[in-house]
Amino acid sequence: MQILSVASEVFPLIKTGGLADVAGALPLALAQHGVSVRTLLPAYPGVAEQLRKRKVLATLDHLFGGKATVVAGQAAGLDLLLLDAPHLYDRKGGAYGDASGNDWDDNWKRFAALGKAAAEIAAGAVKDYLPDLVHAHDWQAAMAPAYIRFTGKRPVPTVMTVHNLAFQGQFPMSIFAGLGLPGAALSLDGVEYYGGVGFLKAGLQLADAITTVSPTYALEIRTPEFGMGLDGLVRVRDNVLHGIVNGIDTDIWNPEIDAHLAANYSARTLGGRAKNRRAIEERFGLTRSEEPIFCVVSRLTWQKGMDVLVSVVDDLVAMGARLAILGSGDHSLEGALLSAAARHPGRIGVVIGYNEPLSHLMQAGSDAILVPSRFEPCGLTQLYALRYGCIPVVARTGGLADTVIDANEAALSNGVATGVQFSPVDADSLRIAVRRTVSLHRDSKTWTAMQRQGMKSDVSWTRSAARYADLYRSLVPAG
Ligand code: ADP
C-alpha cells in the first residue's frame, strides 16, 4: 500500500514541535506493516540540500503565483517529495513566520499550495506514482482533502490527523477567491467556517477518517472545553474519529547509544545517569546536591501551563526542588523565568532557545520532567522521559493521562507506577504534585522502581503503527 503523507514539518529536516517527530518516525514504523510512505513537505531554505538522490519529478506551472517543482529525494530513511516553490517557501525566517515570530501574511497561500499539490500528486502528477491514500497532518496540510474532494481528478481516500486542535488555519472570507475551488466548496459542508475559511475545519469535514494523537484527547475534543469551537463538528464525525497514541523513534531516543549524553546507560545501569546529572548542573549553573532536578523542555506558552509554573517557582525551590528549564515562546514568560533564575542562583537555570542535543541530555540528567499542560493532544516529552528514566510529572489531560501511570498507593504497591499526575492545572495542584515527587525521590528504592517501570513502558511506534495500517486498509478499496 502506498501512502502520501503531507506535513509542514518533518524531523530531522525541519522541526518546531511534536508534529515533526511524528511525521518523521511514523513512516519508518509503517514500513514493517507493508505500508510504504512518501512524505510531501515544503522546500524551506536548506531542506533540499539535506536530500540524497535528488530528482525533479514534476512541474506545477501555476501554483499560487509561481512555478513549482516536485523534487524527490531521501533523508534519514524517509522517502520525500519536496514542494519546491521559491515564491512561497524560499525566505529567511521560520516555517510559519519571520525571524521575530510574526506569521507570514500569505500563509493561507503557502499551505493551500501544499494541499493542492497533494491533490495533484494523488491524481497522477508524478509519473508512475498513484498513492492509495493521502494522509494530511494538521491545518497546514488540511486543504488536501478539500482539493481532492472538489477538484481532484482521482478521488483517493483521505485521513486527517489532528496534532493540536488549537491551531486551525482560520482565514478571512476574502481569500476564498484565490483558492481556486468551486463555489460549492464555500458551504457548511466544505471550507466555510464562522464566516471565513477554515483549513482544519475543511480537513475535519471532508476527510474519510479523522485521527488524533491519543484516546483521551479524542474524547476531550468532543467537549466545548477542549473543542476550540470545532467540538460540534467533531461530534458529528464521531463515527470516523480514532484516537491513536503517538510513539517515539526508539533508535533516536535510546539512552544506551544516544551520542548527546555525557554517559550512556540502561535500566540495569542507572548509575550512569549521575554523569548526565552533573552535566546538567554545570550547564544550568545549579549547585551540586542530591536534591531532585526538575526539568522543563517546552514551548513557553499558556497551553503548556508555563504561567502556572512561573507562579509557583519560588515555592518549588522552597520545597527542595531544583529547576532546569529549556524553552522559547512568549516573551513575557521567557522574562519571568529568567528573573526567577536570577532570584535563585544555583537553584534555577534557564536556557532560552531551541536546542535538540540539550533536550536529550536533559532527559538523561534530570530526575523528573514537569509537563503542566492545560491541554496536551499527546505530548512527546513525557515519552522520552519514560524511556530515559526521568520521572514525568504531568497534568492529567490528553495523551499525558494515557501514557503516565500515577504513583498512587495502589499503583505503587503493584509496582506499576511510572510518574505523577495532577489535576486541575493550577498553582495548588502543581505545588502538591512537586511535593509528592520530592518525597518519592527521598525513597530511593521506590524511585528506582518507578524509573525502571517507566523504562519498560512500550513507547515505541509498534502498536500504533499497526493501528494506522489497519485504518488505511479499512479505507482503501480492496484489489
Ligand atoms: P508540542 O508539539 O505541542 O510542542 P510535544 O511534547 O508533542 O509538544 O513535542 C515537543 C517536541 O519539541 C519534543 O520533541 C521536545 O523535545 C521538543 N522541544 C520543545 N521545546 C524544545 C526546545 N526548546 N529545545 C529542544 N527541543 C524542544
Key words describing this protein structure:
single chain; 479 residues; alpha/beta; Rossmann fold; 2 domains; nine-stranded mixed beta sheet; six-stranded parallel beta sheet; 19 helices; 38% helix; globular; binds adenosine-5'-diphosphate
Report what the structure shows.
With 479 residues, this protein is α/β, with parallel strands linked by helices. Helix 14 packs across helix 18. The protein is built from 19 helices and 18 strands. The strands form 3 sheets. The protein has a 9-stranded mixed beta sheet, with helices on both faces. The chain has a 6-stranded parallel beta sheet with strand order 15-14-13-16-17-18, sandwiched between helices. It has 2 domains: 260 residues, Glycogen Phosphorylase B (Rossmann fold); 187 residues, Glycogen Phosphorylase B (Rossmann fold), CATH 3.40.50. The chain binds adenosine-5'-diphosphate. Adenosine-5'-diphosphate (ADP) binds next to helix 1, strand 13, strand 14 and helix 13.
Count of DSSP-assigned helices: 19
Q: What's the total number of strands?
A: 18
Q: Spell out which ligands are present.
A: adenosine-5'-diphosphate
Low-pLDDT parts are none
CATH superfamily label of the largest domain:
Glycogen Phosphorylase B
Average pLDDT number: 97
The major β-sheet equals: 9 strands, mixed
Strand content: 15-25%
- Spatial order of the strands forming the largest sheet: 3-4-5-2-1-6-7-11-12
- Structural class, by secondary structure, is alpha/beta
**Overall number of domains:** 2
How large, in whole angstroms, is the Cα Rg? 23 Å
Q: What is the helical fraction, as a range of percent? A: 25-40%
| Overall CATH class of the largest domain | Alpha Beta
Report the span from N to C terminus: 11 Å
CATH topology of the largest domain: Rossmann fold
Which CATH-level-2 architecture of the largest domain?
3-Layer(aba) Sandwich
Outline:
globular
